[in-house]
Amino acid sequence: MLKAAVLGAGYMGSAITYPLSDNGIETNLWGTWLDDDLISGSLDGLHPKLKKPLQDGVFPMYSKDLKRAVSGVDIIFIGVNSEGFIPVFKMLIDIIGETKDKNYYFFKLTKGLVNFNGKIVRASQAAREIFYKKFGSKDFLWTTVGGPVRALDLAHKTVSATMYGISEGICGEKIKEIISRLSTDYYRIFTSDDLTGVETCSTFKNIYSIAPGICDGLFREKKEGLYHNTVAFLFNQASIEISKVVSAAGGKKETAFNLAGVGDLHVTSVAGRNRRFGEMVGKGIDPDTAFKKMFEEGEYGEGYTALKLAMPWLSNFNINVKTELPLLDTLHNIIFKKAEPYDELTRFIKNLGS
Amino acid sequence: MLKAAVLGAGYMGSAITYPLSDNGIETNLWGTWLDDDLISGSLDGLHPKLKKPLQDGVFPMYSKDLKRAVSGVDIIFIGVNSEGFIPVFKMLIDIIGETKDKNYYFFKLTKGLVNFNGKIVRASQAAREIFYKKFGSKDFLWTTVGGPVRALDLAHKTVSATMYGISEGICGEKIKEIISRLSTDYYRIFTSDDLTGVETCSTFKNIYSIAPGICDGLFREKKEGLYHNTVAFLFNQASIEISKVVSAAGGKKETAFNLAGVGDLHVTSVAGRNRRFGEMVGKGIDPDTAFKKMFEEGEYGEGYTALKLAMPWLSNFNINVKTELPLLDTLHNIIFKKAEPYDELTRFIKNLGS
């Protein structure tokens, strides 16, 4: 019988416990030092974000209990936010480092880039380095979980399909066997051997979904809802730019035109936190203020952080942001260079087409 | 000075007159025998569908005045529905056949497949044959207009980008020169030499946008809005299947992952008539009844007709509908084989992934 730990008791970490429970997998749901209220709410009978009780076989645990949470587990889902990823993964490896004979399967729900020893990298790259330092040449059994899965909908068992990015080769085969035990009728899992592509898509869909949000903020009242064409244009441009970023980063272009790309961009653009962040910016709220306001409400705007880190990260690759990723450049100007959203967005659009 | 005629005074035909007018192009807006109310409303000062007056230099004309409408024009936009396309285009060619020394530029706004002498073909293929029969070896200066442009939003001058599919070679160069005189600040035109791809995308996005509509009908009340994951999955599946159809039909796969494909699918899925048709079906209304009900309200469900014609059309190509286009097959079962929408949709989803 498989046993799992989920690190991070926010939306996605908590939502993934539903298919795990329905598969009979005993699961410890560990909350970080930011999640104490979520754990106590869950212990009282209702997860405060999901507004649902957790299911049988799911055990909420406070931040002080990490060691207990991961004791004896086979599968570890990491669902903390990108800022907490490195500290939590280091703590995790220190603890499980004591059990060198055991194989762990890691599933990363966290989206975004991380600052690892002063260098901006994909989270799985940092994790791999931390892992090998402790475990030497042991198998790194890693999966990067992509979308399109909104946590709230998953917790309510809406039919969802998701793309898991796994490493190729023998490790991939082992991981696939485990993955086959995680799906349910309402949680369909597709796998891709383009881990780089899946992970890059997950980061950039958060960034690009700020754009339709900005449109909502700018146009919902002014245009009486009649700005679907603009949103569709930005959605399309975003999917094309994501495919270019994926290629430049060494992934497969087509990954961007599948579930982890176009699919995840769709759900995030319609209903995510990053869309909400964009809407605030479109309404004229200063981007830093908007990010802080959401943070104080317990909502982490991953797109904001990812956009900040994307620029130094992209400089590692052969891609010209201004000419090849004009929408990304536009978003960066609005969010971090304080360009006026309406002027900047219309300038961008008018520069394209003929 | 360019002069234009627009055939069909419904949503899109009427909406295109705004950028034409803003470019100083005198435009006759001709209504078919179904459009008399639209013409009289427009002459009275307000287009009944767009809820806006037409602009200066736009002249509404009744169905009896086709000859006057196309007299002396250079550009002809055809915006009738797919059912009216062949009869209207034949009438048009008969009339302009009298002026054999003149070059006409045709722009097809109509979406969908047509039944031409008992064979199902793309509308531009039928038009080409009708044209050559009258004009021999004269240049066929043809453009198929793609999306993503919702007529109502265009008429309100929301920033829109659109993909025009043109023929390659010398004709293409002549057409491009004309196209450069049609754009405005709010109507940005991109061109593609993949006419087949653009036209195929425009047909199939109407079909596939029925799917999120069915979800709305099935789940909006039951799932309290929490079915974004399902819609995103269907959107993604639709874009992948459209790319396969485009390839099979001789177009370029990447056209499906650009404005005429993913972009147009986006706007149509969110706000189109086909989505509304799907919603009625999802709510349990018989598909034929839903189509008729909309028709009686003056709304033509192009997706319904296109889906009916798609099956015989696809049999011309090397593609297996059941295995390669499972969502199309599912929609066909629901709409034309009276399969129960919930059962059929969930069966389809559960057959995918692992």
Keywords for this entry:
homodimer; 354 residues; alpha/beta; Rossmann fold; N-(1-d-carboxylethyl)-l-norvaline Dehydrogenase, domain 2; 2 domains; 8-stranded mixed sheet; 18 helices; 10 strands
Report on this structure.
2 copies of one chain form a homodimer. By secondary structure, chain A is an alpha/beta fold. Chain A is 52% helix and 14% strand. The first copy, chain A, has helices spanning 11-15, 17-22, 36-44, 66-70, 82-96, 123-135, 151-155, 169-179, 195-208, 210-219, 228-248, 259-271, 273-282, 287-296, 302-314, 321-324, 326-336, 341-350; strands at 3-7, 26-30, 58-61, 75-78, 105-108, 113-116, 119-122, 141-145, 160-166, 187-192. Chain A has an 8-stranded mixed sheet with strand order 3-2-1-4-5-8-9-10. In chain A, strand 9, helix 8 (169-179) and strand 10 form a beta-alpha-beta unit. The longest helix of chain A has 21 residues, at 228-248. The model of chain A has no long low-confidence stretch (mean pLDDT 94). Chains A and B meet through helix 7, strand 10, helix 11, helix 12 and helix 18 of A and helix 6, strand 10, helix 10, helix 11 and helix 17 of B.
- Per DSSP E runs of 2 or more residues, the count of β-strands of chain A stands at 10
* CATH homologous superfamily assignment of the largest domain in chain A: NAD(P)-binding Rossmann-like Domain
User: Which blocks of ≥5 consecutive residues of chain A have pLDDT under 50?
Assistant: none
CATH class of the largest domain in chain A: Alpha Beta
How are strands sequenced across the largest beta sheet of chain A?
3-2-1-4-5-8-9-10
The coarse silhouette of chain A is globular
Distance between the termini of chain A: 61 Å
Structural domain count of chain A: 2
Helical run tally of chain A: 18
What can be said about the biggest beta sheet of chain A?
Answer: 8 strands, mixed
Give the second-level CATH assignment, the architecture of the largest domain in chain A: 3-Layer(aba) Sandwich
Name the beta content range of chain A.
5-15%
Give, in order, the helices and strands of chain A: EHHEHEHEHEEEHEHEHEHHHHHHHHHH
Helix fraction of chain A, binned, reads 40-55%
Biggest interface reads: A-B, 52 and 52 residues
Average pLDDT rating of chain A: 94
Q: What structural class do the secondary elements of chain A suggest?
A: alpha/beta
Could you say what the CATH topology of the largest domain in chain A is called? Rossmann fold
Based on CA atoms alone, the radius of gyration of chain A comes out at 20 Å
Oligomer: homodimer
